[in-house]
Structures are given as structure tokens and as C-alpha cells.
Amino acid sequence: HGVFCSCVYVDVYTGAGEAPGDVRAEAESSTLISVQWSGLSNCRLVNGRIIEYRVWLVTCCTAETRVQELGDGEDWSSGGEILLSGLTPFTNHSISVAAVNENGDIGLYSDPVTILSHQCKCHTNCSSRYF
């Protein structure tokens, strides 16, 4: 009777790939932070081209989290930048970035970058004993 074997075809799911690199953040004001990042090194080898990035923001010591999407269907394989506004002044914010490919697959999030937003102008003349 011999061994029966049928062929099996498998679609390999690769996702959107690695995390974006060189994530940088700079406080522009007490409520505004700019974030920049470089593209993926294997952008042409992943399961579809990169068309969007998701920026994950966690405001430390609060329950506030936010996900902002950046993309318009164009090729975003070289990286990107975004301005995050409406932030809590003089607070640490943790930011991570992930790529999304044209199939909707979300890649790995970058290691978080933590940045302190500026102190608002109304408190710059206050004595440190009040904090």
C-alpha cells in the first residue's frame, strides 16, 4: 500500500517587517513635539510596500494614549515625520513608530523614545519651591 502524500500549498505571512529606525523627537513648545524616523532597510522585501506609519504616544503618569496615522497611500518606504499637538505641558511622553504595508499588515513598533515637553510660559517665573 505505499505512503500517500498530497501537495500542500502555503502562503507565508511576513507582515510589514521590522521597526522603523532612528526615531527622534524634539519638543517644539509646551504642547507640540516633532517626531522623525528613517525607513525600513528591507522595505522592498516585505509583504507589500510601506504606505503608512502609526505613531503610538503615551503620556507618562496619565491614562492618555494616542495613535496617529501618517500616510496617504503613497510609498513611504524612506521614513517620515509628524507633529504631535495638544500635549500636556512639562510632561514626559513616550513615542514609538510602526510601518503599515499596502496589505494592512502592521510591523514591529520601534523602541520607545521618551521626551519632556516644555514648561508652559505661565510657570517659567515660578519658584521651584512650588513644584
Overview in brief:
The chain is elongated. Helix content is 0%, strand content 37%.
Task: Return the CATH architecture.
Answer: Sandwich
Mean residue pLDDT: 77
Count of alpha and pi helical runs: 0
Shape: elongated
CATH class: Mainly Beta
Largest sheet: 4 strands, antiparallel
Q: Could you name the CATH homologous superfamily?
A: Immunoglobulins
Summarize the helix and strand pattern as letters: EEEEEEE
Classify the fold: give the CATH topology.
Immunoglobulin-like
Query: What spatial order of strands do you see in the largest sheet?
Result: 4-3-6-7
Low-pLDDT runs: 124-131
Please report the distance between the alpha carbons of the first and last residues: 84 Å
The number of domains: 1
Strand content: 35-45%
Number of strands: 7
What gyration radius follows from the Cα positions, in whole Å? Answer: 21 Å
Determine the fraction of residues in helical runs and give it as a percent range.
under 10%
